[in-house]
Automatic annotation (TrEMBL):
This is DNA repair protein RecN. Residues 2-506 form the RecF/RecN/SMC N-terminal domain. PANTHER family: DNA REPAIR PROTEIN RECN (PTHR11059:SF0). Residues 165-236, 321-355 form a coiled coil. Belongs to the RecN family. It comes from Belliella alkalica. The keyword DNA repair applies.
Amino acid sequence: MLKTLSIANYALIQSLEMEPCASLNMITGETGAGKSIMLGAVGLLLGNRADTKALFDEEKKCIVEGVFDIKNYHLKGFFEEEDLDFEEVCIIRREISPNGKSRAFINDSPVRLEILKELGKSLMDVHSQHDTLQLGEGEYQLDLIDAFTKSQSELNAYSSAFQDYQKAKKSYEKLAEQALDLKKEADFNQFQLQELSSLSLKEGEQEELESDQEILENAEEIKSKIQEILVQLQDEQFGGLNILGQANTGIQQLGRFAHKYESFKERFQSVLIELKDIAESLEDEDSKVEVDFEKLETTRERLSKIYQLQQKHGLESVEDLMALEKELAEKAFQIENLDEQLEDLKIEMNTAYKALIEKGELLSKKRKAGFQAFSKELISLLVQLGMENAQVEFSHQTISPSKRGIDQLDLLFSANKGVKPQALKQVASGGEFSRLIFAIKYIMADKMALPTLIFDEIDTGVSGEVALQMVRMMQEIAKNHQVICISHLPQVAAKGDQHYFVYKDNSTERTISKIRLLESNDRITEIAKMIAGSNPSESAYESARELLKN
């Protein structure tokens, strides 16, 4: 419940504080005194958007702070989920800077407005003109019937099934879209794959072919040059190896004369061995190199095909072409198995849809079971509120599965005998709406477990016995909930456990809205003024005392 509310620098409010009691609080005051401004400030605590035009002093910051006792409202999980410090006494604060920047805090931790709104739903329910619009909306009516029939577990099961179905449907549609794209390019991909596969490419092949081509193109010159070198090395009379062999004999003899020359022997021997090895390798190469114009042409043709494919696909190597071939082969495999995969996903989607419908029908059945009981209880309350001929019923249609189920609801209402119930927007007047909404709030108070309910002139358009009955119902709600009621009716205001008076202070250059808690004599005076005007008679005072006594 709301323990304290403080407002600074907001609209006509320079500074205001109040500490509502845990039961029934009444707020009265003349029209325009600032009661609705207070509700606007409360709305900031619940996540409503801020406006710098609402600043009392445009050069100062606006601060609205509410202190809430939340120890019995099972909100610890919410705080843990949002990574917020949980305290049994929760402080919510909104700040609006002159530059238009708005900030929200929960227990001094900055939060987004979405988080503040979510928490606010568990703290306060504010009746306003917006309720009139909401009441005519199907989703709001689903909320009502779900709370009345305690269908949360069925709704959770349906929501889970809805997510499963959406996931399965998305997977099927994504693959179906991919399949369409793949099939469009399938023929072209297949042609490219065959073109690549026909070459039977091998890793490192391009470098090897280019080397072979280089040798084949110069085979005659290569063989001629090798022969020339071999003659120079191996000629029996003038060959380099023969001459070096003789020199080797001389070096060996030189070593016998002095130990110092032994190293020349080893070094020369090494050179001689290397030259012999070169000669043998050249002989081997000479046997391999052949003038083969047919092989040269074949090599050129293969390299030409490789170069053409590289240019066609914008690639630089055989390895890149092989990677492309693999990719195209995988696409071809996908297409071959696509129909089977699509069928599997379709079965999965249909199974999820069937489970969704089953959960939806269970939820719908429980909802429908509550229509008559809800209507009966609501009509009974409306009769007590002076609407003897009230009729309420639900119009129901089964629709395709949506986020909230397979039900479309429309609450139908008639306040007059002989008039068929119709959609709320078509038949209810302002006073009728106020009583209808109040009766619904009365029914739903415990079922929706709201700690604090605020009624903004809910008694508009009613008077006499109806007003008394309405305030009796408020007192009943206030046994388990904190209620704050803004009222213009003396018989309603007199029944509060606390009574706050909102007024305008014109003692300075600028009008300021203020609030004060009325004690016994002041309260009698205020009730008397509500009865008879600014100068109440003694009989008005007596009536006020009588109202406060009962």
